[in-house]
Amino acid sequence: MDLTLWQYQFRIIMLGDSTVGKSSILKRYTEDLFLECINQTIGVDFYVHFLEVEPGVRVKLQFWDTAGQERFRSVTRSYYRNSVGGLLVFDLGNRKSFENVQQWHAEVSERVQPYTVLFVLVGHKSDRDKAGERAVNRTEAEKLASQLGAPYIEASAKTGHNVKEAIDLLTRRVYQGLKSGEIQLREGWDGVKSSGPTAQMSQKIQNNETAQKNKSCAC
């Protein structure tokens, strides 16, 4: 697969308190590396990865890794509006980071209008469970995810558990949003970009959707 070619670009923003492990998740996903000590994000960092969401449809993922500290919020807020997907991350061993998830969600949802951002809630550092350091149980995390209208998944950048699955889930959720019309390509909005004319790419999505329906109905 030629990774220089892509049909869509999705901007994904990483959200959550400082030290919950947003940068570690991206390091594991994009480079398959884990560093015990990683520099704290100052403002916003950028990562890029490519994913084939279905045969012949390649997506360029542009990640915006935001700093969780309050003093950088004026900087990071400026990136919310041009994002189509958000990974809401909290530390399973840090109760306060879980309690702040709703604040992160509300802040982004308010500022992105009139556009749409789709979310996935990630309980990070699942490796802490074995060490008896869990401060948030799965039931309450799933309840919060349901309230936010987002899927929930637990992951660990340290072990690699569910890191790829979490980001792939969000990517495919955005792509399905494009196919259903929940997400629309718009001029002047960088949340989603296509490598071809908007109308032509939209028609390709509809054709793919029709082909899948016809295939599923074939005897």
UniProtKB/TrEMBL annotation:
Residues 195-219 have a biased composition (Polar residues). Gene3D superfamilies: P-loop containing nucleotide triphosphate hydrolases. The keyword Nucleotide-binding applies. PROSITE patterns: RAB, RAS, RHO. Residues 190-219 are annotated as: Disordered. Keywords: GTP-binding, Nucleotide-binding. InterPro entries: P-loop_NTPase, Rab_GTPases_membrane_traffic, Small_GTP-bd, Small_GTPase. SUPFAM superfamilies: P-loop containing nucleoside triphosphate hydrolases. GO terms for molecular function: GTP binding; GTPase activity. The keyword GTP-binding applies. Coiled coil: none annotated. Belongs to the small GTPase superfamily. Rab family. NCBIfam families: small_GTP. This is Ras-related protein Rab-39B. It comes from Phoxinus phoxinus (Eurasian minnow).
